[in-house]
Amino acid sequence: MNRTRVKICGITREQDLLAAVDGGADALGFVFYPKSPRYLTTEAFAGLGPRIPPYVSSVALFVNATVEEVREVVAAAPVALLQFHGDETAEQCAQIAAAVKRPFVRAYRVKPDTTHNELLECELAYRAASPWFSSLLLDAYVDAYGGAGKVFDWSLIPKELAPRVVLSGGLSVQNATEAVASVRPYAVDISSGVEQAKGIKDARKIAAFIAAVRAADAIIESEHDHERQQPDPRN
Fold first, then answer.
1. 90, 111, 147, 231: least CB-packed within 10 angstroms?
2. C-alpha distances out from residue 19 to 13, 158, 233, Å
3. Distance CA 83, CA 108 (A)
4. Which tens digit of pLDDT belongs to each residue from 61-73?
């Protein structure tokens, strides 16, 4: 069965970390951007690190951080993946990732006039720049760093790119099934959509969101089963 990976971002408390894990999250996001309401200090991250179970990925989010700042976080607790949300160039992302020996995801803020070619060329440029590049994370364009909880036009994502991207931006319990069933991304990333207040998660919303993603997976699998049952016109 097709299974869309789920990342719960903006974890700041142990109880929220455990709620995400219990809900079935594949990855947990920790924000190391001081201006974010979900900012986590390196010391706090070190305290949460031992609570991250095996086979659940820890993702560290940065905005225009230095190599030294990233290295400090990676040394504090397990980090499986870096996530860059600032003005970093492909070369800067590659340099930092190589320095700490971690793969990275690059956030791309999608504008209303973003074209298919722009997204495909961006992914190609990052893949050419670094063997540590993992994926693009697609979010809505806003005049600020980090996510803003806004939905963008999913039809702007090229069909051939969709299975490789992380879909973010305004996702919620209400639209998760539609988003996954229509875009069919590799993974989804949510933060404010599963909160009761900024930086404070809601365990019930987390569970409901992941259930909505799994409902989309079931729809996709049903479509695949139907396609497999169709007779081959060549026979």
1. 231
2. 10, 34, 49
3. 11
4. 999 999 999 999 9
Say how far apart CA 201 and CA 223 lie, in whole Å. Answer: 33
User: Tokens 């001081």 appear where?
Assistant: 34
SS (H, E, C) the chain: CCCCEEEECCCCCHHHHHHHHHHCCCEEEEECCCCCCCECCHHHHHHHHHHCCCCCEEEEEECCCCHHHHHHHHHHCCCCEEEECCCCCHHHHHHHHHHHCCCEEEEEEECCCCCHHHHHHHHHHHHHHCCCEEEEEEEECCCCCCCCCCCCCHHHCCCCCHHHCEECCCCCCCCHHHHHHHHCCCEEEECHHHEEECCEECHHHHHHHHHHHHHHHHHHHHHHHHHHHCCCCCC
Maximum pairwise Cα distance, the chain? 64
Q: Whole-model pTM above 0.85?
A: yes
Q: List residues with catalytic annotation.
A: 9, 139
How far is Cα 234 from Cα 135, in angstroms, rounded to an integer? Answer: 37
Q: What is the pLDDT of residue 211?
A: 98
Residue 146, Ramachandran bin (φ over 0: left; ψ between -120 and 50: alpha; else beta): left
